[in-house]
Amino acid sequence: MPSQPLVIFTPSGKRGHFPVGTPVLTAARQLGVDLDSVCGGRGICSKCQVSPSFGEFPKHGVTVGQDALSPWNAVEERYDSIRGLPKGRRLGCQATVQGDVVIDVPSESQVHRQVVRKEATLRTIVMDPATHLYYVEVAEPDMHEPTGDLERLAAALEAQWGIGGIVAPMPVLRKLQPVLRKGKWAVTVALNKGHRDPVHRLIDIYPGFHEGRIYGLAIDLGSTTIAAHLCDLRNGNVIGSAGVMNPQIRFGEDLMSRVSYAMMNPGGDVEMTTAVRAAINSLAQSLASEAAIWPEQIMELVFVCNPVMHHLLLGIDPVELGQAPFALATSNSLSFDASELALDQVNAAARVFVLPCIAGHVGADAAAVALAEEPDKSDDMVLIVDVGTNAELLLGNKSRVLACSSPTGPAFEGAQISAGQRAAPGAIERVEIDALTKTPRFKVIGCDLWSDDPGFGPATAATGVTGICGSGIIEVVAEMRMAGILDQRGLIGSAEQVGSARCISEGRTHSYLLHDASAEGGNRITVTQGDIRAIQLAKAALYAGARLLMDEMGVQSVDRIVLAGAFGAHISPKHAMVLGMIPDAPLDKVTSAGNAAGTGARIALCSVEARRAIEATVRQIHKVETAIEPRFQEHFVNASAIPHATDGFPNLDQVLRLPELNFNTQSGGGEGGRRRRARD
Ligand code: FES
Fold first, then answer.
1. Do 253 and 304 sit in the same domain of this protein?
2. How many angstroms does the Cα of residue 44 sit away from the middle of ligand 1?
3. Are residues 405 and 417 in the same domain?
4. In terms of domains, do 585 and 451 share one?
5. 627 versus 53: which is more confidently predicted?
6. Are residues 471 and 517 in the same domain?
7. Closest to 585 (Cα-Cα) out of 553, 563, 554, 552
8. Which residue lies with its CA nearest to atom 3 of ligand 1?
9. Is residue 519 part of a domain?
10. Given ligand 1 and candidates 42, 70, 110, 211, which is best to mutate, with the most ligand atoms within 8 Å of its CB?
11. Structural domain that includes position 595
């Protein structure tokens, strides 16, 4: 029977006997308890805080006396008087074991703490970043035993932290000597070690004990927009998010036009690479200045992007991605120095991680969606649609996951639409059309009122009504179909056919007047036949991709659908289904995941284990190539109808019945055809 006191840690439940006088931090380390420390037990960092509990613990079979830990010592007194220790807390490196004790490790003292995402899909991220801070005391140089400062720093890290294999990139090596001397041979280092790195890299070095925060950028590099989250690498908190248009748009709106630009113009790929890197630099700079941090505090970047963006970011000519067999330069994940990308608005030694690509048309963005949404862990058959200029689709469950991409074009993001615009204050985002009168009402971003509510005019006076954003376009087209303004083939009816003066003749076609403030000097916003065609092409590509995956999987329906993408959270499931963007499914099983690719990037930024996991998952995902699949064209043609030429929508039919219309007078459809009134 051991006579040494029993130490029990919660919440882990790890326990062991230790000699009287053992520091709690030492006991925790020996038991493998997740207790943080930056200063190595010197009483400087306060990361090792613990909460001892006293009294009877029948569950653990112990009674803990008030004297189970040593009394407060001078270091704790000093820390408390200067910084304040929360009530009941002790510094684990200072308090020593005196008797049986139960010790709670609060979540902020755990290195691998769990962070619960607040977004639509509740899931946890286990913090396991590649970059950490360590305080270390380094031996002074000795003429009789000549060694370099770096070698003595490495020896100190080995002795005090058990960390070997230190390499110092040039920017750190240049500041090493003055910082060591300024810190009187005590320094804090930021060390980075990726999951496949054999060494620890010095990212930065500070004199003395440095408590500064370290940050990373999770970047979703899309064809149309670049979205970035600035994350605190200690707790995963997002302290700033921003998005900018991808400046490569001026070289071509979609991926293939950018590949063509590179093919047709010598040096075109370099131009595009320079443009996107400049945009990332300015994004990093503005995020850092808004968050009031120094660019040097950004020590890591994680990128997710489609294969063409991937190659252009890395400075690789994307020409091979424009032609079968669509070979990638590499499909593996990549880790390298940010300086390789000429990123100068982050720490000079910052590291980059790029998620693996699934295949030539299915990139690291799809891998990031898989990391965030975990279709490979789903019991039911889930279809995940990441809506963007190039849509990524994943279909599967625990047994098998398939992926493809589909060239939807930028229509869903407001481009190619006459009144289209990016989501910004003043943009129409919600639309309802009265099926009887054909009168619309709408909401704009930045105002909670509907356009027919009293006070809408003054409330939107500052922004005006400027255009229609992606979710608004989906809603207005679906509402036009539900209200009998648009037929199944996507033709807008005439004023006579529809029975509304809002249908305006535009020569051989018609447009629908959504908003007219031209008399007051405002905008006149219409939905034209060209707009409908652009949306039909985009949604047919999306639907055809989904059908192709379902064919390959051998299923006729899916159990649930997740809409992801920068504006995925704003898409109304009912309208998406009326439009025929997605296959039929129970409406309550269609959910939004927000920017899942961005979330996947964030997870990879916060966890090296997640990087390892997604590399393994990607190898299991089977890629379906839409570009060379003959059935894609067949599915595409049928999916051009609204919602679809042949596929039934039984779940949608339970909620509403779409009018049967044919506005094509050439084909004998005539004046409005037969119509049935929408039920809701
Ligand atoms: Fe740093 Fe205890 S480990 S204060």
1. yes
2. 6
3. no
4. no
5. 53
6. yes
7. 563
8. 41
9. yes
10. 42
11. 373-410+534-667
Question: Is residue 117 over pLDDT 50?
Answer: no
| Furthest CA-CA distance within the chain | 102
The string of pLDDT tens digits covering residues 491-519 is 999 999 999 999 999 999 999 999 999 88
Query: Of 246, 208, 563, 512, which Cα lies nearest the Cα of 383?
Result: 563
405 neighbors 360 (Cβ within 8 angstroms):
no
457 belongs to a structural domain: yes
45 lines ligand 1 (CB under 6 A): yes
* Residue 283 · residue 226 · CB < 8 Å: yes
Residue whose CA lies nearest to ligand 1 atom number 1:
45
Is 273's pLDDT higher than 80? yes
Question: Please, where are the H alpha helices in 500-572?
Answer: 529-553
Is residue 422 situated within a structural domain? yes
Residue 637 resides in a domain: yes
pLDDT of residue 440: 97
Same domain for 510 and 441: yes
Q: Within this chain, do residues 300 and 199 fall inside the same structural domain, yes or no?
A: no
Query: What's the whole-model pTM score?
Result: 0.77
Average pLDDT over the chain, rounded to an integer? 89
Structure tokens at 660: 């049967």
| Ligand 1 contact via 44 beta carbon (within 6 Å) | yes
Is the beta carbon of 24 within 6 A of some atom in ligand 1? no
Phi-psi sector, 598: left (phi>0), alpha (psi -120 to 50), beta: alpha
Query: pLDDT for 567-622, tens place per residue?
Result: 666 888 999 999 999 999 999 999 988 788 888 999 999 999 999 999 999 999 99
Residue length of the chain: 680
Residue 103's identity, in one-letter code, is: I
Query: Hunting for tokens 């790929």 — which residue is that?
Result: 269
Q: How far, in Å, from the CA of 326 to the mean position of ligand 1?
A: 53
CB-ligand 1 contact for 35 (6 Å cutoff): no
* Residue 290 sits in the same domain as residue 145: no
From 525, 559, 580, the end of a domain falls on 525
Q: Which atom of ligand 1 is found nearest the CA of 94?
A: 2
Q: What pLDDT was estimated at residue 119?
A: 42
d(CA 352, CA 313): 12
| Short-list 254, 263, 253, 246, CA closest to 320 | 263
Pure H helices in 9-117: 24-31, 74-82
